Amino acid sequence: MTIIAVDGPAASGKGTIARALARHYGLPCLDTGLLYRAVGLSVLKAGGDPDHEADALAACDFDAPLLDDPALRSEAVGSLASRVSVHPGVRQALVQRQRDFATQPGGAILDGRDIGTVIAPDADAKIFVTASVHVRARRRYDDALAHGGHPDMDSLIADIQARDTRDMSRDHAPLRMADGADLLDTSDLTIEAAIRQAIALVDAQLEGRR
Ligand SMILES: Nc1ncnc2c1ncn2[C@@H]1O[C@H](COP(=O)(O)OP(=O)(O)OP(=O)(O)O)[C@@H](O)[C@H]1O
Ligand SMILES: Nc1ccn([C@@H]2O[C@H](COP(=O)(O)O)[C@@H](O)[C@H]2O)c(=O)n1
C-alpha cells in the first residue's frame, strides 16, 4: 500500500500535482478540500452560521452527490470552507472518511491542509506545495477570466491572505509542513515542470523507505 500526502495553501497547485501523481502511480486521488467546501455550502443553503460550530456540525452529514456540484469551486465557498474547518467537531466528523480513503487496498493520494500531519502522518511520501501569494492570486484571476468572470486582483489577494492566515493560525490541524515532507515551490514553475519535480521528490522518498 502506498499513501502519498500532498498539502499546501490555496491555489498553490497541489490539486494539479496530486492528480498528476495519481495518474503516474496509478492510485486513486481525493481532494479533501471538497469535503470542507461541501460542509460550507450546506451551512449556507441551510441558512446557518459557518462560524457557529453546531450549525457547521449539522452540515457534515451532506449527501455524496453534493461533491460534484460545480458551485463548490467558487472562491466564496472556499472561504466558507475555511471558516467551518476551524471547528474541531467538523474536522473530527470528516477524519474517518479521509483515513478510509487513504488506507484502501493499494493506497491513495490525498491533497489538503493536514494530510501529512493528521490524516496520514505515516504516509510513504509527503509533499508541501507552495507559491507566492501574488502567483496564486494570478492563477485564480486567470481561472476566473477563462470562465467568463470579472475578477479583481486586489480582492483575490486579500481573500487568499485571509484564508492563509485562518488556515495557519487555527488551533486544530493548522496548515503547516509535516515532518518528513519535501517543499515544492511552484511560483516559477510551469505545470509540467512542477509535476516532473513532484514525481522526482516522491520517487526519492519511496526509494528512501525501501
Ligand atoms: N505550476 C503551475 N503553473 C501555472 N499554473 C498552475 C500551476 N499549478 C497549478 N496551476 C493552475 O493554478 C490553478 C490552481 O491550481 P490547483 O487547483 O491545482 O491549486 P490547489 O492548490 O489545488 O487549489 P485549491 O485551493 O482549490 O485547493 C489551476 O488553474 C491550475 O491549472
Ligand atoms: N485537509 C483540508 C482541506 C481543506 N481544508 C479547508 O478547506 C478550505 C478549502 O480547501 P481547498 O483546498 O479546496 O482550497 C481550506 O482553506 C481549508 O480551510 C482543511 O482545513 N483541511
Which descriptors would you attach to this protein?
single chain, alpha/beta, five-stranded parallel beta sheet, 9 helices, 5 strands, 53% helix, globular, binds ligand L45E5XJ5
CATH superfamily: P-loop containing nucleotide triphosphate hydrolases
By oligomeric state, this entry counts as single chain
Helix content: 40-55%
- What sort of overall outline do the alpha carbons produce when their principal axes are compared? globular
Global Rg:
17 Å
Given this structure, which CATH class is correct? Alpha Beta
Organism: Sphingobium wenxiniae (strain DSM 21828 / CGMCC 1.7748 / JZ-1)
GO biological process, one term: pyrimidine nucleotide metabolic process
InterPro entries: Cytidylate_kin (IPR003136), Cytidylate_kinase_dom (IPR011994), P-loop_NTPase (IPR027417)
Protein name: Cytidylate kinase
Overview of the molecule:
A 5-stranded parallel sheet has the order 2-3-1-4-5, sandwiched between helices. It has a single domain (2-209), classed as P-loop containing nucleotide triphosphate hydrolases (Rossmann fold). It is built from 9 helices and 5 strands. It is 53% helix and 12% strand. It is globular, with a radius of gyration of 17 Å. The two termini are 13 Å apart. Keywords: ATP-binding, Cytoplasm, Kinase, Nucleotide-binding, Transferase. Belongs to the cytidylate kinase family. Type 1 subfamily.
